Amino acid sequence: MHDTTNNMAERRRHPRTQLKMTLPCLRLDPDGGDVIDSLQTVDISKSGIGAYCDRPYYPGQRILLNLPISKTRGRRSIYASVVRCKPDQDGYHIGLQFEASSAASSAAVPSSSQMAA
User: Hey, what domains does the chain have and what are their CATH numbers?
Assistant: First the structure.
């Protein structure tokens, strides 16, 4: 949908893999209660996910993601924080960073081959 500029690619710590899927999540909001939502993912890396959503998120908001690991290994819950949310013609484009405390290691984040399995 959108091109990543060379400038953005230079700032990335980990390479991104294109990932198109609907991802269930839980928006953790201490003021308004938790809200079940879903994201349309764009890409994933060892450190986070890029996605589209219908509603705005605020920077720093915590999200509980339910990521598929593989067809045989099921799903894994991983916490992430919103690092950006920009309005877009398709809704909102958000950037999520995995929280270190949720074990977002290379074992927790599926590779493109694991997702296809």
Answer: 6-116 (2.40.10.220)
